[in-house]
């Protein structure tokens, strides 16, 4: 009987501890190699080893960064599973000093975009855009009422590559020049982002606007959204100026305080004993004294 009870208790202990053992996750591993060989490996911003090598980590996502002199830092987010090894083969890119592009336009007042990002406005002459990474970049020069000038430029390390943009009149579409006060408003044309208004006397240039009715929207933090809807004709350029209105500051009225007048406590009037009653009491007292005599 005792043996049976002991076996039952042992079986219950095994059943109770089995889920705990099953829930325990094994660590994972990240194996790193680089081309060319070498570099310091950081996992989640902490140095762990030199490449090549293998590091033990907890299961989940980890940021792996590899640093090496004369090469750009390589980094990527790596997913690691319990009990498995994730292999990282990093191809390091040789570091080169940045280069520049010099833009000269056939027309004054143009906007320059590099890789679809606004960089500068050219009022006249040439503007130099520095600190561009070596390699191929897309250049787009925009002027309202003219076709966009687009080209690809191979930027060279520590050199200035010159570009001459020849703007051609656009007779089939319209152009819009936009200015806002204050500057820095995000501009949308029919819900499509077209740029940000510039400070001073510089205009945001919008080209390739199809003839017809269009809505311009101006959005800036702290100001109400301003919209302008109008018709645009082919071959024309419209100047749009807008003054943004600050969002009214809502003031909460202070609650009206009601003056509390302290209530005076009036003491109760003294109770007067009626005269006839006093006479009765005195007579009674006199009668008691006489009877004692």
Brief summary of the model shown:
By secondary structure, the chain is mainly β. It has helices spanning 2-23, 275-292; strands spanning 28-35, 40-43, 46-50, 53-57, 60-67, 74-80, 85-91, 99-105, 110-114, 117-122, 126-132, 135-142, 149-155, 160-165, 174-181, 186-189, 192-196, 204-209, 212-219, 226-232, 237-243.
Explain how this protein is built.
With 293 residues, this protein is mainly beta. The chain is built from two helices and 21 strands. The chain has helices at 2-23, 275-292; strands at 28-35, 40-43, 46-50, 53-57, 60-67, 74-80, 85-91, 99-105, 110-114, 117-122, 126-132, 135-142, 149-155, 160-165, 174-181, 186-189, 192-196, 204-209, 212-219, 226-232, 237-243. The protein has a four-stranded antiparallel β-sheet with strand order 3-2-5-6, with no helix packed on it. The protein has a four-stranded antiparallel β-sheet with strand order 10-9-12-13, with no helix packed on it. A hairpin with a 6-residue loop joins strand 12 (135-142) and strand 13. Residues 18-23, 269-275, 277-283 and 285-290 have low confidence and may be disordered.
